[in-house]
Amino acid sequence: MSHLVWDINPVLLHVGFLTIRWYGALFAAAFVFGYTSMEMIYRREGKNPEEVDRLLWFVALGIVLGARLGHALLYDPGYYLAHPEKILAIWEGGLASHGAALGVLMALYIYSRVAGDSFIWLLDRVAFLAVMGGAIIRVGNFFNSEILGTVTDQPWGIIFARVDSHPRHPVQLYEAISYALIFCGMIPVYRKTLEKPAPGLLLGLFCLLVFSARFGLEFFKTEQAMYDTGLPFTTGQLLSVPFIALGAVLVFRALRRQSAANVE
After folding, report:
1. Sign of torsion, CA 35 39 41 47?
2. CB 167 within 8 A of CB 157
3. The CA-based dihedral angle spanning residues 111, 117, 120, 123, taken in that order and rounded to the nearest 10 degrees
4. pLDDT class for 229, splitting at 50, 70, 90?
5. Any residues with CB less than 8 A from the CB of 4 and at least 6 apart, and which?
6. Where is 19: in which H helix or E strand?
7. CB 189 within 8 A of CB 205
8. Are 243 and 207 in contact, with CB atoms under 8 Å apart?
9. E strands in 36-149
10. Residue 96 in contact with residue 67, Cβ under 8 Å?
């Protein structure tokens, strides 16, 4: 059986002494998408779009630091504690979505206190846009030939030539497509919340749907953690469970409050 061989150079181009990698370019594209989309949201909801510049810095730092520290401390603590200078080497790949979620929570809380904005309003909007940002970043993982799928004999299996000669599930693309579909499904929900506010609903859907997808797709991934949990579930699945539970609670509470408000 013939399989697609993926042997793309992870380096996009060299500009003088600067090396631009596909992963870095797509990571930047995710931020550009988030920035321009948040500006549109601010204008649509009668807020000052100039505030998005400051918000972006908080979110960017929260994502990068949270995702990198999450990867280092949750998936391969032995290596990074022995090589602490590698912890901030994000250009080498290795970002944990669970760490990014926690990092953004902390960053937005600090920003809300500084700017005087509603914390839950910010969380809803950023979570909504982060779904598509995650889809773009997963395409970057595909170009980096990382976060590999398990070996498969299915015709759509891909051989990552820079890793080995085995056809594998392109799980990075599975995840990117899943997130893109979730984002498309959340668009009408966002529009409805403009008419009938439901604080926490978008955040709840993000946690519930994104991490449910992550939990299911882990069955098609090679284990990323450099240690054995001793359980039938991967580290990624175990870390997803609290977010799924939180999402279910947030969705339930938001819908209940919205229903009560409609009755009044």
Report:
1. positive
2. yes
3. -50
4. low
5. 158, 159
6. strand 18-21
7. yes
8. yes
9. none
10. yes
Q: Read off the pTM.
A: 0.85
> pLDDT tens, 35-88?
999 999 999 999 999 999 999 889 888 888 888 787 777 677 777 777 777 777
- 3-class secondary structure, 63: helix
- Beta carbons within 8 Å of 54's beta carbon, 6+ residues apart: 111, 115
Q: Which residues contact 202 (CB under 8 A, 6 or more apart)?
A: 123, 124, 125, 127, 128, 186, 189, 190, 193
CB 71 within 8 A of CB 97: no
Q: Phi and psi dihedrals of 46, rounded to 5?
A: 75, 25
Domain tally, the chain:
1
Count how many Cα atoms sit within 13 Å of the Cα of residue 152 in the half-sphere of its side chain. 20
Pairing assessment for the beta strands 11-15 and 18-21 based on DSSP bridges = antiparallel
Q: Which residues contact 162 (CB under 8 A, 6 or more apart)?
A: 7, 10, 145
DSSP per-residue string spanning 84-99: GGGTT-GGG----HHH
Q: Which domain holds residue 188?
A: 4-263
